[in-house]
User: Which sequence fits this backbone?
């Protein structure tokens, strides 16, 4: 078991700096649209807890998670790790948008369970140009946004860019659809070439 763990960790290191964790698996939380860590977007990471023999730790007690952003001082995480039912030894942690606002997010998950090992995780959130969420009352040529990250600041800030609706957005007809931005307001309203369907409140997209 120990040899297998070392082999898996070596493979992770060879694959590059996406994440560093003992057999860690990265997933989007059920309320998030992206399957990969994004800068400033809430995220869920799934990982195992091991003891000193390499066995999974079930029912870990006294869980304590701390986070460092961009090599800053470690501080308590907003949420605590939760075991996936039942007695699996696999846990998940929901990170807030603020905790993901960094180029490097280092995490340590500690437990008071006897002989359990501290689990380190490292995420490198991907920078995207802009991530948006549709508000209400949009049309096929006007996207009224409830959220833009980063926020709109001036008129035509996004003019000439393109909108790409995410593969998991709510409106099925918009998934993967692309259109160009012909104008934008400082309040975050985007004028676009006609979409096949108007976006609904909660639809998600990226501006590139």
Assistant:
């Amino acid at each position: 078991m120990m040899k297998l763990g070392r082999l898996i960790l070596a493979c992770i290191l060879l694959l590059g700096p996406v994440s560093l964790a003992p057999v860690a698996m990265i997933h989007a939380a059920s309320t998030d649209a992206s399957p990969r860590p994004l800068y400033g977007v809430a995220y869920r990471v799934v990982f195992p807890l091991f003891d000193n023999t390499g066995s999974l730790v079930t029912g870990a007690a006294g869980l304590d998670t701390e986070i460092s952003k961009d090599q800053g001082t470690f501080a308590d995480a907003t949420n605590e790790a939760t075991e996936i039912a039942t007695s699996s030894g696999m846990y998940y942690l929901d990170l807030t948008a603020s905790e993901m606002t960094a180029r490097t997010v280092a995490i340590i998950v500690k437990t008071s369970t006897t002989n359990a090992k501290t689990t380190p995780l490292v995420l490198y959130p991907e920078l995207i140009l802009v991530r948006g969420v549709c508000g209400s009352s949009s049309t096929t040529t006007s996207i009224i946004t409830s959220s833009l990250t980063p926020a709109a600041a001036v008129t035509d800030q996004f003019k000439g860019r393109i909108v790409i609706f995410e593969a998991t957005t709510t409106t099925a007809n918009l998934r993967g659809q692309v259109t160009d931005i012909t104008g934008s307001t400082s309040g975050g309203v985007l004028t676009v070439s006609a979409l096949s369907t108007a976006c609904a409140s909660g639809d998600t997209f990226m501006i590139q």
Remarks:
- DSSP finds one helix and 15 strands in the chain.
